[in-house]
Automatic annotation (TrEMBL):
Origin organism lineage: Bacteria, Pseudomonadati, Pseudomonadota, Gammaproteobacteria, Pseudomonadales
PANTHER family: PROTEIN YDEP (PTHR43105:SF4), RESPIRATORY NITRATE REDUCTASE (PTHR43105)
Gene Ontology MF annotations: 4 iron, 4 sulfur cluster binding; formate dehydrogenase (NAD+) activity; molybdenum ion binding
Stated name of the protein: CbbBc protein
Source taxon at top rank: Bacteria
Native species: Pseudomonas azotoformans
């Protein structure tokens, strides 16, 4: 069935376990389908060969770094989906909205909405007809300026950013918003790796990973925590399997058995494809309790301390790197005291692993001379995520595994420029040094008070304290927790503005006044007054490189993100503190301003001419610790007393299951490319709850039966999603998993990470109730 038919029809759901490896023929077939159904196949074939190439464009998918090797094909399966999804010929224009009211569009799925095509002209919502209608760019900019200038305080506006925005757009955005007078920058980082930034800044002085792409070639142990690279970062699979091949340990810690963490068949290796061979991507696989990672890390550290004391007593080689500890770290004795205070019983009970398994993981770590620790949202979306990440850093510091080749910390970022946007100043809690640099360069009083993160912005809109919402990309309505309350928050605004490439649900959850402003994507040629323009992005390894669009835009009415932001800024502030339109005539002028105000970007315009871009540098990677102590800090946190929140206990109910949300293989963030999840065997359905078969039976259900999922949280609100099929799956007892954003309504807005304010989407206490529709599908794993 083609994607077009899937979008317009209801497919028959089915489940069949997938036997193949990650990648391989399944990936090639998927790429071919994405290409053929783009309605732009010939041009897109040529364009895909420009993905991640020098002089080409940066993939709009994940933030995994580019291999330094050259090659004709430098994109993965899901990168190809992202490119073809963006580079479609289908369009959403005034004629489309004349046919479809907002009320009617609300009945459609997220997949159907985005499938309709690219937004090609600016639109304004008309309440009388319940339709979006065409509006001129000048009128749109004037409307935004009018609303912003009418607010009693700049802090009554929210300025959201998606991780897709380029460095140039992000810098221009933050400059405009701070000149306007606020630090209200809720952004997608708040919902994913915020905990990484907070934790690492306190531990090692920088909120980024410390490794480079080359380090993976020199590591003799790689730990992968709470991550599914086969779907979310497929290009990571090759370094993992190459590490296994050369004899390194690759240790995966993840509750679900994910195919990409088991074995991989490289689609670009002809012999491997012809013989249907594959290679393993791990040497050990541990399946913890949800939220149990910190206990595992503490247990590993406790074993290291035991072995260190034994080595000292027996006069053997030390387990700890004492030279590194003495020269570079602080608080090690306090941390070792916390290890002694943590009992083995507490560690085993909370971790979900046996003591033997924890010891095995510890021995693999101790054996490695150069170790990399990778993690993603399986670590960052818990209440205790900041202490967990600091426990990763603690473990690495004990053996000096930061700041040397083949070793370091690697938070694997999601969206393609989410790290770059933070570097450019998209931060509700900006560093003082950055604000000082802005004041010196632009001569205006920069706001100093912290602004709103995502959760705080939603509360402010709900309570009427914020009345204007501007979204630079993304799908805020579907990316956020507690969906009905987020929808209400957006509808409570006087104005919502969405700068977007494609139609999504955020356009339908609009304020009293609303604009859709169509922007160019990463694949589109961007021509401004001074000629064709390139933009830049920063990957997870702090590499900055250029991106040049390859396709003619579908409409002359589409504008680039910098051009749209310049138009809004000029309508709001005039030519203060800069001539906005002059800046966007040539993006090199924006890069000159970046070079003037952000460390590491000196000679920016020259550096991006270098093939592959340039390395920003990393202070911790060079063993320079930008902390108050001037050293890397051990953080002596205690394990959580109880993983279950007190508001869950206040319901008086014991949870049936603890659920995590996750992506399917046919999606990227909130973008749904199709209704299948190949590696997990699901086809034609997304309303699925993955549950251990014994738990299904224990709770009085049958595999394939439909159930309502109810969140356990005491605040007077019912959080329920209806009619989810119970899929018997290989998942640890007591756990469940379901797709994001379908289960976002179950995540309470108040359930956030301590210190990060990130929604706790990986730990949701639920109960199951029988649904009215109890039809069965084949739903038992082999």
């Amino acid at each position: 069935m083609s994607q077009h038919h899937q979008a317009d029809q209801t497919p028959t759901p089915r489940y069949k376990p997938y036997k193949g490896p990650a990648g391989g023929w399944g990936a090639l077939i998927s790429v071919a389908q994405a290409w053929l159904t783009s309605d732009n196949a010939l041009k897109n074939l040529r364009m895909m060969l420009k993905t991640n190439q020098n002089g080409g464009f940066d993939c709009p998918g994940c933030a995994w770094g580019d291999s330094p090797e050259s090659g004709m094909v430098k994109f993965c399966e899901n990168g190809a989906k992202a490119v073809n999804w963006e580079a479609t010929k289908r369009r959403v224009d005034g004629a489309f909205f004349a046919k479809h009211s907002v009320t009617a569009l609300l009945e459609q799925s997220d997949y159907w909405l985005e499938y309709q095509g690219r937004l090609t002209e600016p639109m304004r919502y008309d309440a009388e007809t319940d339709r979006y209608q065409p509006v001129s760019w000048e009128a749109a900019f004037d409307l935004v300026g009018k609303h912003l200038n009418a607010l009693p305080s700049p802090d009554m506006a929210e300025f959201y950013t998606s991780g897709r925005a380029s460095n140039e757009a992000a810098y221009l955005y933050q400059l405009f918003v701070r000149a306007y007078g606020t630090n209200n920058f809720p952004d997608c980082s708040n919902m994913c790796h915020e905990a990484s930034g907070v934790a690492l800044a306190q531990s090692v002085g920088v909120g980024k990973g410390t490794v480079t792409f080359d380090d993976f070639e020199h590591a003799d142990a790689i730990f992968v925590w709470g991550q599914n690279p086969g779907t979310n970062h497929p290009r990571m699979l090759e370094p993992l399997r190459e590490a296994v091949k050369r004899g390194a340990q690759v240790v995966c810690i993840n509750p679900l058995k994910e195919r990409g963490l088991e074995r991989f068949q490289h689609p670009q290796h002809p012999l491997e494809m012809l013989t249907n061979g594959d290679k393993p991507t791990n040497t050990a696989y541990f399946r913890p309790a949800l939220g149990g990672d910190m206990a595992i890390l503490r247990g590993m550290a406790k074993f290291l301390l035991l072995w260190e004391r034994q080595a000292q007593a027996e006069g053997k080689e030390a387990v700890f790197d004492h030279d590194f500890l003495n020269e570079h770290t602080a608080n090690v004795l306090d941390y070792l005291g916390k290890i002694d205070d943590t009992s083995w019983d507490e560690i085993v009970e909370q971790s979900g692993l046996t003591l033997v398994e924890i010891e095995q993981a510890a021995r693999m770590y101790a054996k490695g001379k150069n170790v990399i620790m990778c993690w993603a949202m399986g670590i960052t979306q818990h209440r205790h995520s900041v202490p967990t990440i600091q426990e990763i850093a603690n473990l690495m510091l004990l053996r000096g595994n930061i700041g040397r080749p083949g070793a370091g910390l690697c938070p694997v970022r999601g969206h393609s420029n989410v790290q770059g946007d933070r570097t450019m100043g998209i931060n509700e809690r900006p560093p003082v040094a950055f604000l000082d640099a802005l004041e010196r360069r632009f001569h205006f009083q920069v706001p100093r008070e912290n602004g709103h993160n995502v959760v705080e912005a939603i509360h402010a809109m709900l309570e009427g304290r914020s009345k204007v919402f501007i979204g630079l990309g993304g799908n805020f309505a579907q990316a956020t927790p507690d969906s009905p309350r987020t929808f209400e928050a957006l509808r409570n605004c006087d104005l919502t503005v969405q700068i977007s490439t494609k139609l999504n649900r955020s356009h339908l959850m609009h304020g009293k006044d609303a604009l859709i402003l169509p922007c160019l994507g990463r694949t589109d040629i961007d021509i401004q007054a001074e000629g064709p323009q390139a933009v830049t992005v920063e990957d997870s390894f702090s590499m900055v490189h250029g991106s040049n669009g390859q396709l003619q835009p579908l409409s002359k009415l589409m504008k680039s993100e910098p051009a749209i932001l310049a138009g809004i800024a000029a309508a709001t502030l005039g030519s203060k503190p800069v001539d906005w339109n002059w800046l966007v005539a040539d993006y090199s002028r924006i890069r000159d301003l970046i070079a003037d105000t952000i460390p590491g970007f000196k000679d920016f315009n020259e550096k991006i001419k270098h093939p592959g871009g340039f390395y920003l540098g990393n202070s911790a990677g060079a063993r320079r610790w930008n902390t108050p102590s001037g050293r890397a800090n051990f953080r002596p946190n205690i394990l959580p007393k109880d993983l279950i929140h007190e508001r869950t206990h206040a319901t008086g109910r014991v949870p049936d299951l603890i659920m995590q949300s996750m992506r399917s293989h046919d999606q990227y963030n909130t973008t749904i490319y199709g209704l299948d999840d190949r590696y997990r065997g699901v086809k034609g359905q997304r309303d699925v709850l993955f549950v251990n078969e014994a738990d299904i039976i224990r709770l009085g259900f049958k595999p394939g039966q439909k159930a309502d999922i109810v969140s356990l949280w005491e605040d007077g609100r019912e959080r329920r999603v209806k009619g989810f099929t119970l899929l018997a799956f290989d998942i640890p007892a007591g756990q469940a998993a379901a797709y994001y954003p379908e289960v976002n309504p179950l995540v309470p807005l108040e359930s956030t990470g301590d210190g990060s304010h990130t929604p706790t989407s990986k730990f949701v206490a639920i109960r199951l109730e029988a649904a009215s529709d109890n039809g069965l599908i084949m739903a038992r794993s082999a």
